[in-house]
Amino acid sequence: MSQIHLQVNNLSKDFGGLRAVNNVSFEVNGPELIGMIGPNGAGKTTLTNLLDGALIPSGGTIYLNGKRIDGIKPYQVARAGLGRTFQVTRSFRRMTVMENLLVPGMALHTTASRKAQEKKAWEVLEFLTFEHLANEYARSLSGGQQKLLELGRLLMLDPDIIILDEPFAGVHPKLMEKIYEYITTVNARGKAFILISHDMDTIFTLSKRLLVLNFGSLIADGTPDEVRQDPTVIEAYLGEEDEEYGTAMPVVDVHQLVEEEGDAS
Ligand SMILES: Nc1ncnc2c1ncn2[C@@H]1O[C@H](COP(=O)(O)OP(=O)(O)OP(=O)(O)O)[C@@H](O)[C@H]1O
Ligand SMILES: [Mg+2]
Q1: Closest listed residue to residue 133, CA positions, set 117, 119, 143, 122
Q2: Mutational pocket test of ligand 1: of 15, 55, 200, the residue with most ligand atoms within 8 Å of the beta carbon
């Protein structure tokens, strides 16, 4: 197993006058399972876009396993070992599920033969319990199944670090369980995850470490327990509470988490 090391140094991204990501630094060491949370517009997706090469940073550097990856193209970042899924699912709708799985390998010119790729694709389908869907067009899949197909495509590339942007949003509970299982199983196989979600229950349960973004800045980096009790984090989620709009994040259960914490002590 290769040694996984991601190093993000003072990363920033400006959109005109708006600083969407502000001086963010953190590291991923080994097969960690990290959650990334933050109110809407905090900069989570923008940070992901910087990490996977879709956006060029306004400042800062990113190293993956010792190789500098900021400023290189997404396919080169993928080859270097970082893969991501999208908040809005992207699949080749007019291709079959099997063809969708074979595309990443072909696009990245992996050395594996077509036969080896197909064998791997069947393993991925089996893992997803998707064998029966192999010849369906991607467009005929449900939203949740499309998310799983995206996860399957990632497995074909076998990245060291996987960033999932809202994998549970709008997914049927049954498929949610499957995605949950995917994350824990692939993590146990030695892959690192950065999981972005507004589903607080899930993310606090799954993650061993949490990164919290607010207005583009990393305001906390610690264990779920540390983050839960961090006054800056509580302020970020509850500070904007307002009679008309409520909290900045509709599904947040920080109220409850804070109460539970209180009960336990
Ligand atoms: N391409 C862009 N051009 C201009 N502004 C952008 C662009 N992409 C994002 N932004 C802005 O950058 C900020 C961060 O947005 P981002 O999508 O990264 O937040 P997020 O944390 O992913 O939010 P959500 O939880 O709603 O997905 C927001 O103010 C957003 O409007
Ligand atoms: Mg987002």
Answers
A1: 122
A2: 15
